[in-house]
Amino acid sequence: MTPQAPTPAYRRLSVEQRRSQLLKAALELFAHRAPEEVSLDDVAEAAGVSRPLVYRYFPGGKQQLYEAALRSAAEELEQCFDEPAEGPLTQRLSHALDRYLAFVDEHDAGFSALLRGGSVVETSRTTAIVDGVRRAAAEHVLGHLRVTEPGARLRMTVRMWIGSVEAASLIWLDEGKEPPVDELRDWLVEQFVACLVTTAGRDPQTADVVRAALTAERADGAVGGLVQRVLPVVGDAGHLW
Amino acid sequence: MTPQAPTPAYRRLSVEQRRSQLLKAALELFAHRAPEEVSLDDVAEAAGVSRPLVYRYFPGGKQQLYEAALRSAAEELEQCFDEPAEGPLTQRLSHALDRYLAFVDEHDAGFSALLRGGSVVETSRTTAIVDGVRRAAAEHVLGHLRVTEPGARLRMTVRMWIGSVEAASLIWLDEGKEPPVDELRDWLVEQFVACLVTTAGRDPQTADVVRAALTAERADGAVGGLVQRVLPVVGDAGHLW
Predict the structure, then answer these.
(1) Distance between CA B22 and CA B139 in Å, rounded?
(2) What is the mean pLDDT of residues B156-167?
(3) How far is CA A48 from CA A39, A59, A104, B113, in A?
């Protein structure tokens, strides 16, 4: 669309519709490019509007658009771990990771640039948004563990796992999205089980959580499969127990 | 010291000595405050020199000083994981983590600000330095696993653990350095063992690494202790194997 020939759609949108149309265009661009490689002209072109119109809605320019897009992406990410409290824990985590990894897959370049940091659009506000997502994800996971007052070790374990999921996501993007996403998801669930069981050895609250969670797991589920694959590897180390 | 009354030390230092004196003063300040809270005047005062002298050595001002201090800190951090290839793997990791956590302890506020991001001094150069430390640490750990050509899963596992160690360090600082550093170290070593064993269930190369590493572990060592503490927790879950 050119300013000379506005289509009816150009005029028909309400303020809120226009704002969300611009935001959607920005999010799409920021998802697949580093923030440095996205200009306001790109956003205007992608939304089929003029650059002045973008400025009218986002007077703060690219920085404001980036933060608005990030806030919208953060809301989506926070919902990833909002899974019904039904079924075995590993199954719930699998569903949550399916959504999380689909998000990473869809927002690959932007996700990488955001978490790697050092970008011109990064501020204490953008890092606070990212940290908010981490906290929300941790709260959801702790909710699935049915703990109302999680102690320091349990909270730390969950945050450590979230840190390792982030690291894995970044490397997964670097490695051309290998291994396949389903494999990565199952592996990350197993890592969670392993980290939680390890902490259970040092923390009575986590031990109770693990005992309760294991009763709901099935032999043909994630934990059963993990045990079956790991036992042959550690079976020769009888000198340790 | 005031500019009016320079002490002999002010003139006696060589260019290199003066530079490293300024760097040391800067590093000390950046270690305990967020970069936003450190001014060039602070550095000049801490080093007992005038502000113009700091500018003579670091014409790029605070940004250049910060990057130089960060580079010097990065070198120290990279050496943390450079541990002689002797003794059980968990013992080597313990020694490396002792040094790493001592660094985190000594540079608490700066470490937090750096890894949290969003600071005005953060650029693609500073994030590249941080990423270089992560890569170097991963190389050292892979070296201790005696693997010359680590596959994707093994590399990912090591980087995931490094991601979780970073997350743990940040939370440890937030929580007033609790649990005590020795306990945190042992716990992180156990988390590494758990992550590695989990990956071993899915990756033949990692399985070989685990088998070889376990033969060198002792019953009264980290792995033996982990097994003894964890078995009672998972003992009731016989329905899973």
Answers:
(1) 31
(2) 96
(3) 14, 18, 27, 40
- A229-233, B113-117, B199-203: least confidently modelled range: B113-117
Is 60 exceeded by the pLDDT of residue B3? no
Nearest by CB to B211, from A224, A228, A233: name it. Answer: A233
Q: What single-letter DSSP state applies at residue B59?
A: T
Q: How far apart are CA B231 and CA A211, in angstroms?
A: 11
pLDDT, mean of residues B2-23:
73
Q: Is the dihedral of CA A89, A167, A133, A152 positive or negative?
A: positive
Band of pLDDT at residue B8, cut at 50, 70 and 90? very low
pLDDT digits over A35-84, tens only?
A: 999 999 999 999 999 999 999 999 999 999 999 999 999 999 999 988 99
Angle separating helix axes A15-32 and A108-116, nearest 10 degrees: 80
Under 8 Å between Cβ of A211 and A223: no
Question: Does the distance separating the beta carbons of A200 and B214 come in below 8 Å?
Answer: no
Of A126, A159, A194, the CB nearest to B118: A126
Number of other CB atoms surrounding residue B123 within 10 Å: 18
Q: For chain A, which domains are there? A: 73-236 (1.10.357.10)
Among chain A residues, the shortest Cα distance to B159 is held by A167
The shortest C-alpha distance from A61 to chain B (Å) reads 19
Distance CA A77, CA A97 (A): 11
Whether the CB of A12 is below 8 Å from some CB of chain B: the reply is: no
